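For the sake of clarity, the format in which proteins appear in this thesis is described at this point. The record quoted next illustrates the convention:

___
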Amino acid sequence: MIQIIEDFLPEPVAKSLSQSIYDTPENWWSTVYADGINPPIYLNNTLENRKIKNIYDTKVNESFIKSTGVVYRFKRSTEHVKGCSCYECSFRENYLKGKQFSDLLYGSMSMGNPVLFESFVSSYERGDFLNVHTDEKRGVAFVLNLTKDWKPEYGGLLTLLDNGDKMKSIFPKFNSLVLFKLGDEGVPHFVSEVSSRAPHARVAISGWFNDE
């Protein structure tokens, strides 16, 4: 079950949220690597970690070719301090945990008692990707696309697989909310690699709700 809601946020709110993401200092992000074998590793964007990143780039590339487990590389936010009032935490409290969003999940996704499991800001830059995985035993995934002036040829398309031979690619249109039901078995899906010619990062706020 998939639902796409365009113009989800009031336009001024969406523009402000998007700009806040692009204005975020470099040291706020972590680059997360998963090679399909070891637990994901989070590396802050420091000069000290540059050598380590090169090593993990090689590991991720090798695992991607071998199709070993869940393989990905992109930037994302991590846990914030208690009481944080940044744009991400404010959005989580004012929208994701609000009644309007709960009613949307209840009505559109047939959830009985949706509870936010995780949310984070993602930034897919040139060469970043997320290979096929299922996210089993989770309720409903959401992606709020906040990238302006994006084109399909830039990549970064969320693609869902059906019965292994049919694909549905979803363009990350600005201010569109994508909801899709995962369930116990999950749904095979991936994010295609962002082109080396993309002029800027593809950003979004993503996460999952469980039915409790």
About this structure: The helical segments are 11-22, 50-66, 87-96, 99-108. The CA atoms of residues 147 and 174 lie 5 Å apart. The first strand starts at residue 2 and ends at 5. The chain has a mean pLDDT of 94.
